[in-house]
Amino acid sequence: MEEALKEGVQIHKILVSDKLADTNSGNEILKKVNNGGYSVFALPHKLFEEVSDTQNPQGILAVLGIKNYSIEEVWDEKNFFIILDSIQDPETWEQ
């Protein structure tokens, strides 16, 4: 969420677990979000867990706009790229 705020990504809606709202770090994030005037919806933690598609949700979800880049904007022969797909919830990876 903080990265989206830093990068200026379009934020449509934000869902927050009531557990996150009760923590210091959660309060800091919510201050930044509220200062931006975004639509924020607080959910009971149990419902938040059902809405989230991760096994260990962090307590905040957002509906974001997709930032599109052309290959020319990001390609540079000096750059090294790794393309990852479906990365989520690393705590559940088998070793």
CATH class: Alpha Beta
Main structural class: alpha+beta
> In percent, how much strand structure appears in the residues?
15-25%
* Computed CA radius of gyration, to the nearest angstrom: 16 Å
What is the molecular shape? globular
- Count every beta strand, where a strand is a DSSP E run of 2 or more residues: 3
The total of helices stands at 5
Pfam families: SpoU_sub_bind
GO biological process, one term: methylation
Domain RNA 2-O ribose methyltransferase substrate binding: 2-69
GO molecular function: methyltransferase activity
Which keywords apply here?
3-stranded mixed sheet; 95 residues; 35% helix; 60s Ribosomal Protein L30, Chain: A; 5 helices; single chain; globular; alpha+beta
Task: Describe the protein.
The protein has 95 residues and is of the alpha+beta class. It has a single domain, classed as 60s Ribosomal Protein L30, Chain: A (2-Layer Sandwich), CATH 3.30.1330. Strands 2-1-3 form a three-stranded mixed β-sheet. The protein is globular, with a radius of gyration of 16 Å.
Task: Offer a concise description of the structure.
The chain contains five helices and three strands.
Topology of this structure?
Layout: H1 2-7, E1 11-17, H2 18-21, H3 24-35, E2 40-43, H4 45-51, E3 60-64, H5 71-74
Parallel strand pairs: 1-2
Antiparallel strand pairs: 1-3
